[in-house]
Amino acid sequence: MDDELLDVVDEYDTVISTINRKDYKQFLSEKRGYIRASELFIMNDEGKLWAPVRVSSKTIAPNGYDFAAAGHVASGEGYRETIIREVKEEINLDIAPGDIEFFAKLKTNSIRYFRSLYLLRTNQTPMLNPTEFAFAEWLTPNELISSIDDGHAAKSVLHDSVTVLKMYLTNVSPN
Questions:
Q1: Kindly report the CA angle at 167 between 166 and 170, in degrees rounded to 5?
Q2: What's the number of domains the chain is made of?
Q3: How far apart are alpha carbons 21 and 31 in whole angstroms?
Q4: What is the rounded distance in angstroms from the CA atom of residue 52 to the CA atom of residue 111?
Q5: Could you say which of 71, 126, 141, 159 has the lowest number of CB atoms within 10 Å?
């Protein structure tokens, strides 16, 4: 995985070069462009999000809330293709492109990422990958935001992403 290539993009999400994944943290600190990521929420019929908590050994947000699945977009790969791959790798679900809803693409300057956000609506509780997640719970978007606001650790972009999801959900009827 460390020798996986990632595309470097400019402020318009146009590919300008590539880097090795092992170098991405150094690259991001130098602010020479952006890299890409895809992130997925899972929502059940009750309007609750499956909120996994990362294992304590993680460097980023140990014991913190995370997306149901997320990952870097490999060089030459698309955002949707990435999240389908990550869903299989991280939570062992086989999904098709039509199973997920794209709801936002965000340029996040603080972490130098372009992030595509997706939603999977299902009542199926995913299997935890024990190398990624310690446990998970079903929470409403408001409960998840409140828990983060009350000090529960989380990935730095999760709070804002849940807020964007809430805005999307107010403008779209359920499938």
A1: 85
A2: 1
A3: 16
A4: 22
A5: 159
Tens digits of pLDDT across the chain (175 residues): 557 899 999 999 999 999 988 887 777 777 789 999 999 999 999 999 999 999 999 988 999 999 999 999 999 999 999 999 999 988 989 999 999 999 999 999 888 999 999 999 999 999 888 888 999 999 999 999 999 999 999 999 999 999 999 999 998 755 5
- Non-local CB neighbours of 92 within 8 Å, separated by 6+ positions: 126, 127, 129
Identify the CATH number of the domain in which residue 88 sits.
Answer: 3.90.79.10
By CB neighbour count within 10 A (0-12 exposed, 13-18 middle, 19+ buried), where does 135 fall?
exposed
Q: Which residues contact 84 (CB under 8 A, 6 or more apart)?
A: 95, 96, 97, 100
Q: For 56, list phi and psi in degrees, rounded to 5.
A: -70, -20
**Residues 129/90, Cβ–Cβ less than 8 Å:** yes
